[in-house]
Amino acid sequence: MSGQEARAKGRGGPGEVRIVGGIWKRSKLPVPVSDGLRPTPDRVRETVFNWLGQDLAGWRVLDAFAGSGALGFEAASRGAARVVLLERDGKLAAALRANQKRLDKDGAVPMTIESADALAWMRRAAPGSFDLVFLDPPFAQGLFVDALAAAAPLLGEHGLIYLESPEPVAAPEALGLSVWKEGRAGAVHYRLLRRGG
User: Fold this and answer.
1) Taking burial as the number of CB atoms within 10 A of a residue's CB, which of 95, 126, 138, 139 is the most buried?
2) What is the 3-state secondary structure (H, E, C) of the chain?
3) In degrees rounded to 5, what are phi and psi of residue 3?
4) pTM of this prediction?
5) Is the alpha carbon torsion for 87, 84, 146, 2 positive or negative?
6) Which of 94, 76, 75, 2 is closest to 39 using CA atoms?
7) Rg value, the chain, Cα
8) CATH number at residue 142
9) What's the rounded mean pLDDT across residues 168-178?
C-alpha cells in the first residue's frame, strides 16, 4: 500500500496520525510522504492497547520499524518507563524527533529515537531488555520471520511481541512464542505473541 493510500484510509487525516490514549490523547503526529509507509490504524492501536492495558507504567518498549511513530508514541503517552524508536529512513527519523520535541517540550518522557536498521540493532541489543516489542516492518520486504527471530531474545520475563503483517505469520517453533491475541482490520493482520503456551 502506498503512503498516499495509507493516509486516505481514516488514520487521522492527510499526512498525520492521531494518538488515541494517555497524556497525549488526541494529539496529531504529522507524517511525511514516504513510499510504503502504512501507519497502524487508530482502531487497531485502540484494540491493541486495550489488550495490553491502558497504563504501561514501568514497561520497556521498542518500536523497531517506527515509521510514523504511532505505536511508540502511543506507548510513551501511556506511561512506559522507556521507549526506543528505530527508523532508518532519515526523513522519517527527523519527523519523529520533531514530533517528540513538540509533544514532550520538557523532555520528561523517556524516549530515544535512533536512525538505525531495525534488524541489525535488535541483533546486537542486550537480551531481556524489553517488555514489549512492536514489529511493523514494510510489508513488501518480507522481514516478518527475521524480525521475530531478532526480537524474541530481547523479551524479558512475560514479554510480548506485537506483529503486523498482510497475512498471519507463524513464529518459528524454536523461538518459543505463541499467539496470545490476534485481529484483522482490512488487509492488516495483527498479533500479540508471548513466550510459552
Assistant:
1) 95
2) CCHHHHHCCCCCCCCEEECCCCCCCCCEEECCCCCCCCCCCHHHHHHHHHHHCCCCECCEEEECCCCCCHHHHHHHHCCECEEEEECCCHHHHHHHHHHHHHHCCCCCCCEEEECCCHHHHHHHCCCCCEEEEEECCCHHHCCHHHHHHHHHHHEEEEEEEEEEECCCCCCCHHHCEEEEEEEEECCEEEEEEEECC
3) -60, -40
4) 0.89
5) negative
6) 2
7) 15
8) 3.40.50.150
9) 90
How many structural domains comprise the chain?
Answer: 1
Contact yes or no for 125/149 (Cβ under 8 A): no
Question: Nearest Cα to 11, choosing from 32, 50, 39?
Answer: 39
Q: What tens digit of pLDDT does each residue of 116-167 get?
A: 999 999 999 999 999 999 999 988 888 999 999 999 999 998 999 999 999 9
Count, residues in the chain: 197
Instruction: Name the one residue in this structure whose C-alpha cell is 511508540.
Output: 72
Which residue do the cell numbers 521475530 mark? 148
C-alpha cell recorded at residue 106: 520538557
Per-residue model confidence as pLDDT tens digits over 46-95: 999 999 988 999 999 999 999 989 999 999 999 999 999 999 999 999 99
